[in-house]
Design a protein that fits this description.
About 45% of the residues lie in helices and about 10% in strands. It is an alpha+beta fold and about 130 residues long. The mean pLDDT is about 80.
Length: about 130
């Protein structure tokens, strides 16, 4: 805390030679010059977004254009919920086995459909089939 206080309140100040901006860190001054005076731009190739820093463009693309990468495999999802489901199915080992055969579903809804189509007896007698 003391080091941070001294740095912020009592250290050297770095002044911009093109305006009255000043910073306590040289990196902040360099970033200011690049953004404000050099007009460095990082446009998105998929939409109208135009960032001022490369890291912000990367964050934009990850959140807006589906770069949700699995940290355990090469899977890339377009939506965060797809990545969550991928991890649940492929890496967490959550499966739904059928209690009537060897079938194993990856979702409860798929197990229900399996049971209805494979194991369920016909509820209604068809007058054309009988």
């Amino acid at each position: 805390e003391l080091r941070k206080h001294k740095e912020m309140k009592h250290s050297l100040s770095y002044s911009c030679d093109q305006c009255d901006y000043s910073a306590t860190k040289l990196a902040d001054l360099m970033s200011h010059k690049r953004i404000e005076h050099e007009k460095a731009r990082y446009p998105c190739d998929q939409c109208q977004y135009d960032g001022t820093e490369a890291v912000m463009l990367t964050k934009h693309k990850e959140s807006k254009h589906g770069l949700f990468r699995c940290d355990q495999s090469d899977y890339i999802a377009k939506q965060p919920q797809y990545l969550k489901e991928h991890k649940r199915i492929k890496h967490d080992g959550i499966h739904y086995p059928c209690d009537q055969c060897d079938h194993i579903a990856t979702r409860p809804g798929n197990l229900k459909i399996h049971k209805e189509t494979i194991h369920q007896v016909v509820r209604y007698e068809c007058d054309q089939c009988a």
